[in-house]
Amino acid sequence: MNPWWHPDRFMRKVPYLQERARIFGEIRAFFDARGYLEVDTPALQTAPCMEAHIQGFRTELLSADRQSKRTMYLHTSPEFAMKKLLVAGLPKIYQLAKVFRNAEGSSWHSPEFTMLEWYQRGMDYKDMMEETADLVRHIAASSSPRKRGSRAEERGAAFVAGDSRFRGNDGKFCDPHQPWEKITVVDALKKYAGVDISNNLCDLAHIRAEARRIDVYVSPHDDWENALLKILMEKVEPRLGSPAPSIIYDYPVSMAALSRPKPEDGRFAERFEVYVCGIELANAFGELTDAAVQRERFLADVRLRKKVYGDDYPVDEDFLKALEFGLPACSGNALGVDRLVMLATGADDIGLVQAAPV
């Protein structure tokens, strides 16, 4: 087979890359029109993330005289740096960032990909749901017909621009202009898996029994959160996002990550995810602003990572200092741009929408 850069092979990518460039422009137009400031934060960070199951890339930063060095990481998200900018006084920011996650690779995953991340001070997480829907509809509506009869089309470019629906690999379609499904995690488990956790949060014996009943494998080493995630991945997620996008929200607080507990029901967190054609597109939070609670969560992640993988990441103390200084009430969202382009074009592999492979 010819190498990826051979013109006869590469030509198939061209219409996908043209659509990618168009979508980047529409993203910027959307946020610029709403008064957001585009920012660009460093990829090198003292900690790549704190999520126990995300693998970062480790490197070394040498001093100018090469006499000293410190361990650094490529960020898996620009979240920590962007929240520091909120503390510094910026009210509405967005970023199209290259991010890096090790041990990833599939038709929907790449170790290097583009993430759109945005934050607004004073925004409630339910308002963030509406803004996310506005963005996705804007991208879909802006699709323009592609010139027919091009050399790229003759060589097998699969998508037809001008269709505002999204398309998944399994033949599913998703129309973002239809009313979106909004469903809590508890209700989604009932509806799509027949599992009720409303009175059994963190009950490991119950979730194991339910997993066995619906034929989902849970290993002896899985804790409650991992068991629940397996049920969500196998029974719920594939059924989300068709014929319209789905927002699944109010995750159990043990799965809160960097989101805050719901003031009216502390068993759950202000977190939501967006699904299109069974694919996770975005992950959003009503952001946690309590430094002490965040530290406790970080340390719990360190312990879990040590237990599962035998290593750990340093805690970003500068981020916790920023929280202590005062992160204002805000919401934020992280959206996979490569996946958005794939869904907009019907691409069956993330490599089609990236100009060159890693």
Summarize the structure.
The protein has helices at 7-10, 14-33, 79-88, 125-141, 151-154, 185-193, 204-213, 224-236, 291-309, 317-326, 337-345, and strands at 37-38, 44-45, 57-62, 69-74, 92-100, 112-121, 166-167, 173-174, 181-184, 246-252, 261-262, 265-276, 279-286, 330-336.
Characterization of the model:
There is one protein chain. With 358 residues, this protein is α+β, with helices and mostly antiparallel strands. The protein has two domains: 7-42 and 77-180 and 244-299 and 330-353, 2-Layer Sandwich (BirA Bifunctional Protein, domain 2), CATH 3.30.930.10; 184-242, no CATH class. The protein has helices at 7-10, 14-33, 79-88, 125-141, 151-154, 185-193, 204-213, 224-236, 291-309, 317-326, 337-345; strands at 37-38, 44-45, 57-62, 69-74, 92-100, 112-121, 166-167, 173-174, 181-184, 246-252, 261-262, 265-276, 279-286, 330-336. Helix 3 (79-88) runs parallel beside helix 10 (317-326), helix 7 (204-213) packs parallel to helix 8 and helix 9 packs antiparallel against helix 10 (317-326). It is globular and about 55 Å long.
Could you tell me the number of beta strands? 14
Gross geometry: globular
CATH homologous group name of the largest domain: Bira Bifunctional Protein, Domain 2
> What fraction of the residues are assigned to beta strands by DSSP?
15-25%
Main β-sheet description: 9 strands, mixed
Taking the alpha carbons of the first and last residues, their distance comes to 18 Å
